[in-house]
Amino acid sequence: MKAGLELRFGQNLAMTPQLQQSIRLLQLSTLELALEIQQAVDTNPLLELVETEEFGDRDEAFAETSDTALSLDTILQADPNAQSGEALLEPNHELTPDDPFALDTHWEDYFEADGSTSYSAGEQNHDEYDPYATTSNGAESLRDHLLSQIHLTHLTPRDTAIATAIIESIDPTGYLADTLEEIQTVLATDWPNIALADVNTALHLVQSLDPIGIGARDLNECLSLQLRQKPSDTPYKNVALQICERNLIEAIAQREYAQVLRALTIDQATLEGALMLLQGLNPRPGASVGSTAADYLIPDVLVSLRMGQWQVDLNPEIAPKLRVNQTYARMINRSSRGEDASYIRSHLQEARWFIKSLRSRNETLLNVARAIVARQTAFFEQGDTGMRPLVLREIAEELELHESTVSRVTTQKYMLTPRGTFEFKYF
User: Fold this and answer.
1) What is the pTM of this model?
2) Is the N or the C terminus of the chain less surrounded, counting Cβ atoms within 10 Å?
């Protein structure tokens, strides 16, 4: 055996701390963002809030810096899936075997007429939607609920880190918001030897936690996880599993029951039994944790009709003016001790990153809101009858963003309109 040097070239995907911060801020709700800003101001002496007396300052919500803004869409490759929804079938609906294919379901809520995933897969019925309801309250959060179970499993520090990263990626409805590759990339900073197979193994562990169905990547997987937990002798269990595993839920959403009957070689009575079993499942398992009370909403954007045009503005209440404390910044040149100068430089860079991340977040939020309003003007003028089908892909393509970026922007973000306050995903 002979020792020697070998030079290899390769490309690795890495997520910078600035981009990680930008992605995290993008996902925060208004209340969470306010806490994040206050914590940053409290811990960084070079950051300071500037009190504004007039709403006219909202267009200058953040102090300018010399660096270019961060891109939030550089490495996001997640495929957002079903994130909300009502009961899969009407609770009080009675199936009538004598009436061919009289299966009245809400599966169409999960798919648009063209077969593509809806803008908010499984979104709530417009007539039943409560725009003032939220899922945050003083109860235990979904994240804490899952982490408390992980801490009881006595995993190694490495496996605990993987499971924790997966839990951090689960959205409020219980679905995995990032791909396994993205989670592996985030972990690579501290655990460079973690393989994709390790992340997949940890995902299976997280999916075994309560509530059942948590950590799924799409609606089919969510329902399958719940079905597998049922006793083996549960009537119609195997048929219901086949519906999920063979992606036949979309056919059910389109009421193409004949296609399902042919694909599974079953009769109508069996299909009705399987659908009744699916009716008892929860398409949003995460929403059942810590969602018993409602808080007041603070809208992220304000929609108004001015001079015959629909205008969208950032809510000035959620865009506090931040700036770098120039007194401390000037101390870098005056400091006689290298340690002091290093401390100030470090916090100065962090302050600039934070300001740019906030600006980038709000610019992306505003652009997405404007794109939604531009497509739903008929709704604002006519009401629900004017609502048009809208999918994530349309917004993403117009703004040149990835669909996962748009999904993050629209999660727990609200707009105040003349017709009420609505979550972005409502549209």
Assistant:
1) 0.43
2) N
